[in-house]
Design a protein that fits this description.
Blueprint (H helix, E strand, L loop, with lengths): L6 H21 L1 H12 L4 H30 L5 H19 L5 H24 L1 H4 L5 H15 L1 H12 L1 H4 L3 H26 L12 H18 L1 H30 L4 H25 L5 H18 L6 H29 L5 H11 L4 H15 L2 H6 L1 H24 L1
Helix pairs in contact: 1-7, 1-10, 2-12, 3-4, 3-5, 3-11, 3-12, 3-16, 3-17, 4-5, 4-10, 5-16, 7-13, 7-15, 8-10, 8-13, 12-13, 12-15, 12-16, 12-17, 12-19, 13-15, 14-15, 14-19
Length: 416
């Protein structure tokens, strides 16, 4: 029987379509523009990659620190939508502002602001999954979010790419074309969020006490105490910390990596567009497969695939290699994110989804602080970008071992 999304599920999926446009811009045009600004300031390719990695680490670290607290506040009745809207607004504003900047240091600073807003919004968006659907539909709904996010993000990206590559023919400067592209992406992101904001209602929540923030901190403390007792959740988060670290690092630094290797800019952008196109059917195929095969098995396959991708990166030195890498990433990127999200949503208390997804974000995007910093540091001390990227294979290996252990624990927990 064909899987059909409800009206509210479609509106939740639509936000993935909107924010994915920003994600694609971050992994493609943003680092290219920053590279242009860095070159004009006399910064070397290796240092450019390192600075971009450090900036990414800073914004993920900020969200990792604030995430659990904001998540706890969001679990209070009627607060989740408010904090989600504020975070999304910061990201949209930052995206527009980036188009007006010509200083590399200011660009990095505002980039941190915009990406922090984007990442924070995802904490509450992911936590909304428990409110918009039922446990037996979470794998499919989460997968549809990533799938349509990948293909939908291509629409504003193609507009941005056309403006960037055809700026000369259009008679506009490169910076003007990028400004227009950034505005298109921000408006797309904002408009895609409006249907969800109009229809979303928080089904699971904690009642507001005398002081919302104080009560939220108390609940957060109880959640950490509960987490120490729920070993199956704790070990999963530990596994997730390691394997998703590599996934987000690949996403954040793919274009910067290719440029530092001296690959053609246009070819890089097209290769990353192929990643989005390949990801769309791949996620939907896996979402159907998960009805017959356990999600734990599919997540395991994805981790192993990423381990192989990281090892392969050691020998990458041509455009063909990068294209092949882009296709392989596209096959597994959305699935490992979608099924990890829904897997976690099913094993946590629904009324504490904001708090738990705040912790989830520490282990997710917060973990990429290590990945981006590791790639940047090893690239600088060895002088080899390939060694820096291939070092991520260790993170996937550790994540694989821990995930299989957590899956076994979760099976035993269900029997109790």
């Amino acid at each position: 029987m064909k899987f059909k999304l409800t009206s509210l599920e479609k509106k939740w999926v639509l936000y993935d379509v909107g924010n994915s446009a920003f994600t694609l811009l971050v992994s493609t045009i943003f680092p290219i523009y920053f590279n242009t600004l860095a070159e004009s300031a006399g910064i070397s390719d290796v240092d450019y990659l390192a600075y971009w990695g450090y900036a990414t680490s800073v914004c993920t670290l900020i969200v990792a620190v604030l995430g659990p607290t904001l998540g706890a506040v969001a679990d209070t009745k009627n607060f989740k939508k408010i904090i989600f809207s504020l975070s999304m607004g910061v990201g949209v504003f930052g995206c527009i502002l980036l188009g007006f900047l010509s200083s590399w240091i200011w660009f990095l600073g505002v980039f941190v602001l915009a990406k922090t807003g984007y990442s924070a919004s995802l904490i509450f968006y992911d936590a909304m999954l428990t409110d918009v659907t039922e446990p037996d539909r979470m794998d499919s709904v989460s997968s549809h979010g990533y799938a349509w996010g990948y293909i939908g993000s291509c629409i504003p990206f193609l507009a941005c790419l056309g403006l960037y590559m055809g700026s000369g023919a259009l008679g506009i400067g490169t910076q003007t074309s990028l400004l227009i592209g950034f505005i298109i992406t921000a408006v797309w992101w904002l408009c895609s969020s409006l249907p969800l904001l109009r229809s979303y209602r928080q089904r699971y929540f904690s009642e507001a006490g005398g002081h919302v923030v104080k009560e939220s901190f108390k609940r957060l403390g109880r959640t950490f105490l509960e987490l120490s007792k729920e070993k199956h959740i704790f070990v999963f988060l530990l596994a997730f910390f390691f394997y998703i670290d590599g996934v987000y690092t690949v996403i954040d630094m793919a274009t910067a990596y290719g440029q530092a290797l001296g690959l053609d800019t246009n070819a890089l952008l097209l290769a990353l567009l192929v990643t989005q196109i390949v990801a769309f059917p791949s996620v939907l195929i896996f979402s159907r497969l998960v009805k017959k095969v356990k999600s734990e098995t599919i997540i395991t396959v994805c981790i192993v695939a990423y381990f192989c991708i990281a090892v392969y990166a050691y020998w990458l030195d041509s455009e063909f290699d990068f294209w092949l890498l882009a296709v392989m990433v596209g096959m597994f990127q959305g699935t490992i994110q979608a099924l990890s999200r829904s897997y976690f949503a099913k094993i946590i208390p629904a009324e504490k989804s904001g708090e738990f997804f705040g912790i989830y974000d520490i282990c997710g995007k917060g973990a990429s602080v290590i990945g981006t910093a590791l790639v940047s540091f090893l690239s600088q001390i060895t002088g080899s970008i390939n060694i820096g990227v291939s070092a991520l294979s260790v993170m996937f290996l550790i994540g694989l071992v821990l995930f299989r252990f957590s899956a076994k624990m979760n099976t035993e927990y269900k029997k109790v």
